Amino acid sequence: MKSYRALEQRFRRIAAVNGALAVLGWDQSTMMPEGGAKVRAEQMAVLSVVRHEWITDPAIGGLLGEAEARKDRLNEWQRANLREMQRQWRHATALTPRLVEARSKATLACEMVWRKARANNHFKSFATAFAPVLELTREVAAAKAAAFGLSPYDALLDEYEPEGRAAQIDALFADLGRFLPGFIDRAMARQAKRPAATEIPGPFPADTQRQVGLRFMKALGFDFRHGRLDVSLHPFTGGVPTDVRITTRYDEADFTSSLMGVLHETGHALYELGLPKFWRNQPVGEARGMVLHESQSLLIEMQVCRGPEFLTYAAPILRRAFRGEGSAWSAENLGRIYRRVQPGLIRVDADEVTYPAHVILRYRLEQAMLSGDLPVADLPHAWNDGMQTLLGVDVPDDARGCLQDIHWAVGSIGYFPTYTLGALAAAQLFAAAKERDPAILPGIARGNFRPLLRWLRQNVHGRGSLVSTDRILRDATGRPLGTAAFKAHLKARYLN
Amino acid sequence: MKSYRALEQRFRRIAAVNGALAVLGWDQSTMMPEGGAKVRAEQMAVLSVVRHEWITDPAIGGLLGEAEARKDRLNEWQRANLREMQRQWRHATALTPRLVEARSKATLACEMVWRKARANNHFKSFATAFAPVLELTREVAAAKAAAFGLSPYDALLDEYEPEGRAAQIDALFADLGRFLPGFIDRAMARQAKRPAATEIPGPFPADTQRQVGLRFMKALGFDFRHGRLDVSLHPFTGGVPTDVRITTRYDEADFTSSLMGVLHETGHALYELGLPKFWRNQPVGEARGMVLHESQSLLIEMQVCRGPEFLTYAAPILRRAFRGEGSAWSAENLGRIYRRVQPGLIRVDADEVTYPAHVILRYRLEQAMLSGDLPVADLPHAWNDGMQTLLGVDVPDDARGCLQDIHWAVGSIGYFPTYTLGALAAAQLFAAAKERDPAILPGIARGNFRPLLRWLRQNVHGRGSLVSTDRILRDATGRPLGTAAFKAHLKARYLN
Description:
The structure is a homodimer.
Chain A: H1 2-30, H2 37-55, H3 58-69, H4 76-93, H5 97-120, H6 123-148, H7 152-160, H8 166-193, H9 206-220, E1 227-231, E2 237-240, E3 243-248, H10 256-273, H11 290-305, H12 308-321, H13 331-338, H14 355-371, H15 379-391, H16 417-436, H17 440-445, H18 450-459, H19 469-477, H20 484-494
Parallel strand pairs in A: 1-3
Antiparallel strand pairs in A: 2-3
Helix pairs in contact in A: 1-2, 1-3, 3-4, 5-6, 6-7, 9-10, 9-12, 10-11, 11-16, 12-13, 14-15, 16-20
């Protein structure tokens, strides 16, 4: 027990630095004046180095070995905590300090070039800055592949989604790839026969939007003693589980996008707020991975809040808050707005039906770039081809094509698939929840989310990182992650 | 140069952790929901330990010795930087880790007890929790006295005001102690013969107060690319020189106190913003000490903003902003409000004439407690006696007596005198500034603070910690810190 306890102490200190970094990052995006950027970057770099030094301290290797040898004395949560410590330690120690530093410098430089390249639609300058990032990401993948005995892509994926494997994704995405093109056509045809959505006339004052957002957050179970809502250019969920910071941005001409953004981040926040209290500040107390995290935001946003029950509850609240009049404010019309299907160029603007195509394209391309099959210079061509094949969309320029996302510029390869795996998990979890507790759906229609939150706390949030994503899904839904619930959801929502 | 450069690197990392702590502390007081407190305290404790470990790293002692031996190769700023590194290192290494930890625990506990004791007017519970704080503060004082070759009180004072000495304070305070009682009587008598101040009827919406505060901050030279104004229960100046965070609180029934609070913190902020840019993140680039810091806030608040020139400029702005009417909004009436003299119980509410008496009392009592001459149990009696003698005020209870301030509860002995030394320095600096640049006073009356700010940047802010407070004052005003300018200021303002 002594080695295990010593490890808990060390990981507690690491968690404190992680938490400090989370607050500094939140402040950077929400509060910090522009002139504070350089010094803030240095503060965060210094704390990141401290964290890396602590987690790669050679003493941890010895303690992990000792604790592992006496693991039978640990209870189930402690054993899982030890396993997660090992995982984090192996990820950190797989890389030499030289590689960590080189990657950090290259991605920082590439991110800056990317911002300009996207603004100026200039792929060539991006390609030059991205080449070393890709090369260093390959080195990282190779080092982690060796440490974990995985393929290079799986080794990268494992950072975002522990035990996530390309073989599983390949099967799921192949299934979706067969299903979606035909389904999109059918959904579009069906949509064309229904009345078009009526746009709701604004303006919508930012402060009213904020008040409405806060009201729905509260109803959904967001605990404001442990969190806040603020404004940032790009919405995100930050902070720590005892103090969750979500953000949005307000467009006074259109409230619908910001509102759904707040609800999406609330889904992330409820996961963080519901993590096991006793295991705060320990690896086993953290969220399981990006797939379940995205499943929680998409369950709230896509499964719940874009559905007719939620909109029945929300429509009169919205109408009153914005002093609206007329049928544009009906739940039916809100549904037409919030369930509109339209293939488009931009991933973050995509509806839930076409979104997976954006992800499948990126997943294929990043695998090909990592393996070397796709030279960076050929990326625009491959991107545009894929958009035509998967969505029937012509890409007019790289700014709205392969330069639209930040992920690759900062070396995030292996992240994209978690968005769509999250969508699949959200559909599967919500279907199971509704089946297990028949009070959930009528509750939503009345603005009572307690039955839903109770089920999520028990079956997802409260389990932390005790078991794998796969185990959580099997326990909660009776089956491994699949496409069936997602396809059933799409059919029910878009073809009926 | 190699040892010196290595020290710069180390102190740069320490500054990054200090900066991170400043942002975390600001967030704690302004943004953090209550449920985040416990984890935040842990984050800050871990970073404080990191900072302490880094600054007491035995390698620093060696590097300081090497750099000192080759100091002739350093330029003036580098030599001063080395001297400040030595000072910080000696303060940190004077204490054993056991003493640091014991003091930290005792003060944390005592602060909590003090909050309740003050609310419930219960001195006995405070005394019990304060006894170990005082004992540990004595240990700290003894350890630092040995390390610096100073008296225990001077060793504590040196933390807040480098090279500050009780002998100097004794002389200044004796002079003030002779001057003030008679002066207060004369000022009150004179005040009684003038028309009384007319109260300005509210309410004053918090948002309007904020807009007015921002306007004056901007006029005074606060650079919003490098800072913000927010709300907290107790106003303070935080952040780092590239990102200065000041706070206030709003009373919608009375704007005058919040406004002067914003102007006071703006004085602190201008000092931070004006510190030498090239020496950011190094000890020599930091503010010189609490005396000069308080001199800058009091120069702006007391010398400038409560004076007739500023109020002439501000009165019409305030009247328009709050849509006020009538003579209550005249510069003359604002002056009667802002220059009212009234002996009272509470230090933070005191006017500039009676404020020194509050400080002199605390200074005498904390010296007596530190030396052991005053047992804690006798504090209320000594306090109430002193208030009667110095201000002619009867203290009705300890909540409004010796329990009113947080300082002693958290082990801050040696801090109080810097408030009044700051007031003396403010008067002396402003008198010199007006004499050296005749454009300053007419500028203020027109809302043009550039001549004043230029003088302060050159003579105070931009010097950082290059030389001592005494040297800065001699260079800027031609004489050491004295009471003459302060007394002349009081006479001019309150007897004419």
